[in-house]
Automatic annotation (TrEMBL):
The lineage of its organism: Eukaryota, Metazoa, Chordata, Craniata, Vertebrata. It comes from Stegastes partitus. This is Interferon-induced protein 44-like. The gene is LOC103365556. It comes from the Eukaryota. GO terms for biological process: immune response. Gene3D superfamilies: P-loop containing nucleotide triphosphate hydrolases.
């Protein structure tokens, strides 16, 4: 049984908190005061590192100045092979990926971020890469719509024509609100991650997920759960997101880490902050502006930049571009590495408990 106290806050900054109803002995304490995670020592959970990072990043001055003076780095800060061959290799890697746990067939990845960050676009773009043409299956909203996606919607990433679905499912969800009264609550996000929320569930901030919710999954299997969370932020908004978003991310990260789920981040819309990258995506790792924005996104998320990858989604294009495909596939590959850590951790734990029983 996993009923828990409802959160003492929601992501609708300033919105009324739902009143708690049922609690159990194992209930998580949703304390709005930030607590340091106790047991999980994932690389992504280092709160102290995150805080240090905050300090360091916020005291750096003249970043923009240097961007203007020297917008391009002499050598890229991450190496990527921008070739059709690399695209083929990455497609093979992604489509042949199978979770390293016999119990599940697909890794479930939850995309979390504010409305308009590019979550649905990322899903559509990855599907486009595999289908060989630009499609919009994940119902991308316009940048002004409040939150087009209100349901929990998993998308199988299908292999190329005739191939089986890949071992990855990208789950789209309503956006974290950045000020309106429509955002997801921490309670609901954690219910999704634990596997209690049925596919197609329509979120509503005043109707939190409980055992009475239609289709509530009482005893989630490993396949029902989320195995990796990918935060999604818009590079062109990192500097203007409401202040509360950063603490929302920190709280989410701490609770998600407590569940043993690794987290990565996608910095989308990099074409909007760097015109060179907009013209030619192979500039992305040479762009000082993008590099600086990655650090700022790291500070916003409380995450080291090594977990963050830049992404350029297909938005208005009609044709695929090999370099954009490579960047998108690299992001999926990055996500899968952290999803697989979950299976490795859980398999290792199972082994421990077997040893213990014997
Ligand atoms: N230029 C550009 N636009 C993007 C990118 N990603 C998303 N968009 C646009 O941003 C808007 C919001 O995207 P959407 O995927 O609906 O965001 P969501 O609310 O997070 O699902 C849409 O108009 C997209 O076309 C990107 O990488 N580059
Ligand atoms: Mg969406």
């Amino acid at each position: 049984m996993h009923e828990e106290s409802k959160p003492a806050f929601s992501f609708n900054f300033g919105a009324a908190a739902p009143t708690p109803t049922t609690t159990t002995a194992t209930a998580l304490q949703f304390n709005p005061v930030v607590t340091v995670p106790k047991s999980v020592s994932l690389p992504t959970t280092s709160t102290s590192t995150a805080r240090k990072e905050h300090r360091a990043l916020f005291t750096v001055s003249g970043m923009e100045a240097s961007s203007t003076v020297r917008p391009k780095l002499e050598s890229p800060w991450r190496d990527v092979e921008w070739t059709a061959e690399q695209r083929t290799n990455l497609m093979k890697t992604v489509s042949s990926y199978r979770p390293s746990s016999g119990e599940v067939t697909q890794a479930q990845v939850l995309l979390l971020g504010p409305v308009g960050a590019g979550k649905s676009s990322f899903i559509s773009s990855v599907q486009s890469v595999f289908s060989g043409r630009v499609t919009n299956r994940a119902m991308v909203g316009s940048s002004s719509s409040s939150s087009f996606t209100k349901k929990l919607q998993p998308f199988n990433i299908l292999g190329q024509k005739g191939e089986d679905p890949t071992g990855v499912v990208l789950c789209d969800i309503m956006g974290l609100s950045d000020g309106e009264m429509t955002g997801l609550t921490l309670h609901d996000v954690l219910s999704v991650i634990k596997g209690h929320v049925p596919v197609g569930h329509k979120f509503s901030p005043d109707q939190p997920v409980t055992a009475e919710t239609e289709g509530y999954v009482r005893r989630p299997t490993l396949q029902d759960k989320i195995h990796c969370v990918a935060f999604v932020v818009d590079a062109s908004k990192v500097l203007t997101y409401p202040k509360g978003l950063s603490s929302t991310f920190q709280q989410l990260r701490e609770h998600i880490s407590d569940l043993g789920v690794h987290q990565v981040a996608l910095l989308t819309q990099v074409d909007k902050i760097c015109s060179e990258t907009a013209k030619d995506v192979t500039h992305v790792y040479k762009s000082r502006i993008v590099q600086d924005m990655m650090s700022k996104a790291g500070a916003l998320l409380g995450m080291s930049t090594s977990y963050i990858v830049p992404v350029r989604n297909y938005s208005s294009e009609l044709n695929l571009d090999v370099n954009t495909d490579v960047l998108l596939l690299s992001a999926v590959d990055h996500i899968l590495q952290y999803a697989d850590l979950y299976f490795q951790d859980n398999t290792a734990q199972d082994m421990e408990s077997v040893k213990f029983k014997n």
